[in-house]
């Protein structure tokens, strides 16, 4: 609905309507279902089934389809709006709006094993605070899979993943993800994770792999920053700031 409104009216009207709808839902829950119906709550309250509603709303506001400002190219916004209007919920919510982040350097033994069904590893938060300098992370976000390489990543893991001797030897930018064979364990397991995430999204994409290094070019690091929706950026607040804004508006009855 928000994208439809953006097409028919102003982008800012669509963004405000999306936030207003979330406030209506959260305000109704506070009024009808909580002891603090008439008082100010110190935390934003939501039913278990809607605990992620604020995060998804914030992710939508930061997505190119609804992102404010002039930093989104017209073609990129049109393509993003088309995705939002046509994709099934399983692909739209994750990984398109809220990316899936996995720590490849710390995979559990049973994760992404070649035997039987692929067991996905635990997902990480969508914040730069969860990225360690020694880490290697896979960020699945729909049409792209970002491969984030920390400056201190273990060379043995880099070789197992990409058959390169070190992080410095891996070029930043678009990469055809290699199929190196079963002897390259991390490469095999990362490819299995990508295939599984695509399958969960009904194979809506054949994702492009983009290498994003901690000390790489700024225009490539921006791609990762836009997917870490819990962090503050020029287009919208951080997740914690957004929760506080929603809480204050619900307490004031501003919905």
Overview of this structure, please?
- With 255 residues, the chain is α+β, with helices and mostly antiparallel strands.
- 43% of the residues lie in helices and 9% in strands.
- It has helices spanning 2-8, 11-33, 53-62, 74-86, 89-97, 155-162, 185-200, 218-227, 239-252; strands at residues 100-103, 136-140, 144-149, 173-175, 208-213.
- It has a five-stranded mixed β-sheet, sandwiched between helices.
- Helix 1 (2-8) runs antiparallel to helix 2 and helix 2 (11-33) packs antiparallel against helix 3.
- The model has no long low-confidence stretch (mean pLDDT 89).
SSE blueprint and pairings:
Layout: H1 2-8, H2 11-33, H3 53-62, H4 74-86, H5 89-97, E1 100-103, E2 136-140, E3 144-149, H6 155-162, E4 173-175, H7 185-200, E5 208-213, H8 218-227, H9 239-252
Parallel strand pairs: 3-5
Antiparallel strand pairs: 1-2, 2-3, 4-5
- Along the chain, the helix and strand elements come as HHHHHEEEHEHEHH
Strand content: 5-15%
Query: Mean of the pLDDT scores?
Result: 89
Distance between the termini: 18 Å
Helicity range: 40-55%
Low-pLDDT windows of residues: none
Number of helices: 9
- Described by the principal axes of the CA atoms, the overall outline is globular
Describe, in short, the structure shown.
With 255 residues, the protein is α+β, with helices and mostly antiparallel strands.
């Amino acid at each position: 609905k928000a994208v439809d409104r953006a097409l028919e009216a102003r982008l800012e009207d669509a963004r405000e309507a999306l936030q207003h709808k979330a406030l209506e839902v959260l305000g109704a829950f506070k009024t009808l279902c909580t002891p603090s119906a008439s008082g100010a709550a110190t935390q934003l309250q939501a039913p278990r089934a809607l605990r992620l509603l604020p995060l998804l709303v914030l992710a939508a506001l930061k997505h190119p389809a609804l992102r404010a400002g002039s930093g989104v190219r017209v073609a990129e916004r049109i393509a993003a709006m088309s995705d939002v209007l046509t994709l099934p919920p399983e692909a739209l919510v994750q990984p398109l709006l809220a990316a899936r982040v996995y720590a490849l350097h710390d995979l559990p033994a049973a994760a992404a094993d070649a035997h039987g069904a692929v067991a996905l590893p635990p997902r990480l938060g969508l914040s730069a605070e969860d990225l360690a300098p020694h880490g290697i992370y896979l960020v699945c976000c729909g049409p792209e899979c970002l491969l984030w390489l920390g400056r201190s990543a273990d060379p043995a893991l880099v070789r197992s993943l990409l058959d390169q001797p070190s992080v410095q030897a891996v070029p930043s930018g678009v990469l055809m993800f290699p199929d190196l064979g079963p002897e390259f364990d991390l490469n095999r397991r990362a490819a299995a994770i990508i295939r599984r995430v695509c399958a969960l999204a009904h194979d809506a994409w054949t994702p492009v792999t983009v290498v994003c290094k901690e000390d790489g070019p700024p225009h490539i690091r921006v791609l990762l920053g836009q997917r870490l929706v819990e962090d503050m950026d020029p287009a919208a607040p951080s997740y914690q700031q957004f929760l506080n804004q929603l809480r204050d508006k619900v307490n004031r009855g501003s919905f």
